[in-house]
Amino acid sequence: MLTLLIDCYAGCPGAALDPLAGPLAGTVLRAVGQQLAPALPAPGGAVAAHAAGVVRQVLAYIRRHAAVPGRLHLGHLADEFAYSPSHLSALFRQHMCEPLHQYIVRHRLQLVETHLRAGALTVSQIADELGFVDVCHLNKQFKKRYHLTPTEYRRQRSTLAVASYAHA
């Protein structure tokens, strides 16, 4: 019966024989559509959920491979997740409100900061462990974000810790 209604509404030649068939079919189909609409997923809902899942996978991948910079290049990530570089970049920016490269740099520098606070490794060892080209590269990146070199940051943190301990 639904097929007959759809045919009538679509202008089937037999519908011309009954002038009420077309309007009646339209009314019935709209009513059925209104009843079914709440059960249907929101437009783009599945696509948005998939995109959010991909971004979560990219974030996990970045965390696992933060010390291997070659694996964090946009081209490599795009290949890894089967997206074009521009699409992956746009998807990441849309969900994270930050460019992919900027997120990667920020994440790696947060790891550097964590190591500096722990104090167990030298700046050179931290650079090696986190895959920076050399200490110079680490210093430039760190200073750009924190306005201090890693050594100055560590010194300042230890001075603050001693001062707060002395006042306690």
Q: Can you walk through the features of this model?
A:
With 168 residues, the protein is an all-alpha fold. It folds into three domains: 2-39; 45-97; 100-168, Homeodomain-like (Arc Repressor Mutant, subunit A), CATH 1.10.10. Helices cover 71% and strands 0% of the residues. It contains nine helices and no strands. The protein has helices at 2-9, 21-36, 45-64, 74-81, 85-96, 100-118, 123-129, 135-146, 150-167. α1 crosses α2 (21-36) and α4 (74-81) crosses α5. The longest helix is centred in the first third of the chain and has 20 residues, at 45-64. The radius of gyration is 29 Å and the shape is elongated. The mean pLDDT is 82.
Write the layout of secondary structure elements.
Layout: H1 2-9, H2 21-36, H3 45-64, H4 74-81, H5 85-96, H6 100-118, H7 123-129, H8 135-146, H9 150-167
Which labels suit this protein?
71% helix, 168 residues, 9 helices, 3 domains, mainly alpha, elongated
